[in-house]
């Protein structure tokens, strides 16, 4: 097993940096389904551009490299203790080289362990089997989509759909609702794994297990096959679209599994995965630890690099407003939902820890007229102590909803960049104070890292790399105005229209 450690490093690096073939095919299909010039088409262009850049740079597709979860099937007699130890070392190694973001945080103190190791991280699950080789699989599922997982207890009442009973049709309603409730916040278009039955724990476990199925497989259970096909077809009629911008594709895949339940409980658990569906696997020789075959890599390989030139042309074609901080109130009030902005100059990152901190403390920098970027980047320091950005896409903004409006007013911030949109409180503050919300493309961490020219400083490093306040100098950083200072919110509109569309699926389908 002398090569097992190297194989695990390879598995982690490949999973974080290269999307599997089945996922690429699903994204390509979505791209072909959108009309040129729409916001959805533009977002998918950025996404495929980003996938190609991650391939080329061997850098994380998305800055949130998630909670690494390994599943291993091992021959009887294989030493699981040694394998666990090698996996942990491989995780620390991949973190050191910037292929993983340090993502393991003490839940009580907030301290980041810095190497992705800690209580409960990574997750490593073993199963014994009668084969003579090791089947090792890894999923890197980020936090934004994890937060959109949902569990239903039947019977229940659902927005738009009414009563969901204890039968296949009730299950159908829950699954349709799960896609609606995620909106664009889990970086749609997404993939879902559905677990039917079990208890609260085994139900979610089963849902996540489905994410290890190939997106192209066919469910051997006829009812589940029908359910999966129904959901993919109809969830795409909700009009939520890529990033929640509206559009033809909202869901890229649905896989459902079933286990028994006990009479009193009937759970439907849904695991939502973003488009950056990073899961790979390999067969490993149990004696040497060497890779003998990669999994999920059958069929045609889509090389998005070839399409990048065409995509760039299309993005340039949109009307763009140039923004550079400090921004005046007048300039901000001239922006409207739908405008594409191109930012150059300074922006400051701030996510969960910073927003909480700023709600009761002064800011180390003057934020008057400035731009806050909801982002927790992957950073590496070189031998001259200079920081470099390895991946830097937006994080889900709604978590800052309790703080954002007050902070914008108190510090004079004119624009916030994030993804997934914000709520009524922020919208009101944007109107009163004169501010905008700019939506960047979630997961496009290479694309945005490329717009960052230099790291000019950092504050509040005590919160750890992802949560610190990074001072970034950018050039031509593109984002879309999705909430303006006139009370308009694209997110509010899409949520409303998708709820109306969801109601079309109220009548029974599976009798
Ligand atoms: O933590 C992050 O950087 C992003 C997160 O995965 C999110 O989707 O909000
Ligand atoms: S930012 Fe988006 S693409 Fe990245 S992990 Fe979060 S949900 Fe996934």
UniProtKB/TrEMBL annotation:
Which EC main class describes this enzyme? Answer: lyase
For biological process, the GO terms are: generation of precursor metabolites and energy
Q: Which GO terms label this protein's molecular function in UniProt?
A: 4 iron, 4 sulfur cluster binding; fumarate hydratase activity; metal ion binding
The record ties this protein, via Pfam families, to: Fumerase, Fumerase_C
- Give the EC number: 4.2.1.2
InterPro entries reported in the protein's UniProt record = Fe-S_hydro-lyase_TtdA-typ_cat (IPR004646), Fe-S_hydro-lyase_TtdB-typ_cat (IPR004647), Fe-S_hydroAse_TtdB_cat_sf (IPR036660), Fe_dep_fumarate_hydratase (IPR011167)
UniProt cofactor(s) = [4Fe-4S] cluster
Q: Which NCBIfam families match?
A: ttdA_fumA_fumB, ttdB_fumA_fumB
- Give the protein name, as stated in the record: Fumarate hydratase class I
């Amino acid at each position: 097993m002398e090569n097992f450690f190297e194989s695990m490093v390879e598995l982690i690096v490949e999973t974080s940096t290269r999307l599997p073939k089945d996922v690429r095919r699903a994204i390509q299909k979505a791209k072909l389904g959108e009309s040129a010039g729409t916001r959805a088409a533009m977002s998918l262009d950025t996404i495929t551009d980003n996938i190609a850049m991650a391939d080329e740079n061997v850098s994380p597709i998305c800055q949130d490299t998630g909670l690494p979860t390994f599943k291993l099937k091992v021959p009887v007699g294989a030493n699981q203790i040694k394998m666990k130890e090698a996996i942990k070392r491989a995780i620390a190694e991949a973190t050191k080289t910037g292929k993983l973001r340090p993502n393991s945080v003490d839940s009580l103190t907030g301290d980041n362990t810095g190497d992705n190791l800690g209580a409960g991280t990574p997750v490593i699950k073993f199963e014994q089997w009668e084969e003579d080789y090791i089947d090792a699989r890894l999923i890197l599922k980020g936090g934004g989509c994890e937060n959109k997982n949902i569990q239903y207890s039947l019977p229940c009442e659902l927005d738009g759909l009414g009563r969901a009973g204890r039968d296949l049709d009730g299950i159908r309603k829950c699954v349709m609702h799960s896609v609606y409730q995620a909106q664009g916040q889990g970086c749609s278009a997404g993939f879902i794994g559905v677990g039917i039955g079990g208890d609260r724990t085994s139900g979610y476990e089963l849902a996540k297990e489905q994410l290890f199925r190939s997106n192209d497989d066919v469910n051997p259970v006829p009812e589940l096959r029908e359910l999966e096909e129904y959901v993919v077809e109809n969830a795409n009629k909700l009009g939520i679209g890529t990033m929640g911008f509206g559009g033809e594709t909202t869901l890229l895949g649905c896989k459902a599994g079933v286990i028994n339940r006990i009479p009193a409980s009937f759970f439907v658990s849904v695991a939502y995965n973003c488009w950056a569906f990073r899961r790979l696997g390999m067969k490993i020789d149990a004696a040497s630890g060497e890779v003998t075959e990669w999994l999920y890599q059958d069929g045609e390989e889509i090389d998005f690099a070839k399409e990048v030139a065409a995509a760039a042309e299309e993005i340039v074609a949109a009307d763009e407003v140039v923004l550079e901080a400090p921004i005046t109130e007048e300039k901000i009030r001239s922006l409207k939902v739908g405008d594409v902005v191109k930012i150059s100059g300074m922006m400051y990152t701030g996510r969960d820890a910073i927003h909480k901190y700023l709600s009761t403390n002064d800011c180390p920098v003057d934020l008057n007229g400035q731009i806050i970027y909801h982002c927790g980047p992957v950073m590496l320091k070189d031998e001259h102590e200079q920081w470099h950005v390895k991946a830097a896409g937006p994080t889900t903004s709604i978590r800052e909803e309790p703080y954002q409006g007050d902070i914008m007013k108190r510090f004079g911030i004119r624009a916030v960049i994030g993804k997934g949109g914000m709520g009524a409180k922020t919208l009101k503050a944007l109107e009163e104070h004169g501010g905008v919300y700019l939506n960047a493309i979630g997961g496009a961490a290479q694309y945005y890292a490329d717009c960052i020219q230099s790291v000019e400083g950092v504050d509040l490093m005590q919160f750890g790399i992802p949560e610190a306040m990074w001072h970034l100098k950018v050039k031509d950083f593109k984002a879309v105005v999705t909430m303006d200072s006139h009370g308009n919110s694209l997110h509010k509109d899409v949520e409303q229209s998708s709820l109306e569309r969801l109601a079309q699926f109220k009548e029974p389908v599976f009798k």
